[in-house]
Amino acid sequence: MRVLGVDPGLTRCGIGVVDGTPGRPPTMVAVGVLRTEAGTPTALRLQTLRDDLTAWVLRFRPDAIAVERVFADVNVATVMGTAQAAAVAMLVAADHGLPVGSHTPTEVKAAVTGSGRADKAQVTAMVTRLLRLDQPPRPADAADALALAICHVWRAGTQSRIDAAVVAR
Length: 169
Description:
This protein is of the alpha/beta class.
C-alpha cells in the first residue's frame, strides 16, 4: 500500500509518501513541505496547495491519503487555516477517487512511538528509525506527514475500506 500523508497547514503543509503493509517496516518514497506566502489571499493559497497536492498524487500514485484530523485550539485563525488545508487534501483525494484516512495527533503518536503523549522530537526520531533514514526529515511538518502515512499503513483497514466504499458510489 502506498500512502500520501498530509500534515495540513496553510503556510507549511508537510507531505510524505510511504510504501508498506501492516506489521512490516515501511519505506519512504518521498517527503517535502508545500509552502504558501502569508500575505497572499487565502483563496490563492488554497489553490496553490490544491495544485501542489495534485502534482504529488499524479507523480506518486498513492492508494490512499492520510490527513491529520484538525482539533480545536485557542488560536482560531490557525485552526481555520489548518482545517482549510485539510479540506483541500480531502478534495484532491476525492478528485482522484482515493480513500481518505483521518487520524488524530494522539493516534499517530501512539502508532509510531507507542505513546500518544510523545513530543515532536520523539515522533521525528521514531520516523527516522522506522524508515531507516540517514537524517531526520526537516522541518517537523515533513516528519509529521511521514508519521501520518506510517500510521495509516499500519492501521490500514477500517477507515480506508469505509472511505473506498463511499468513493465507489
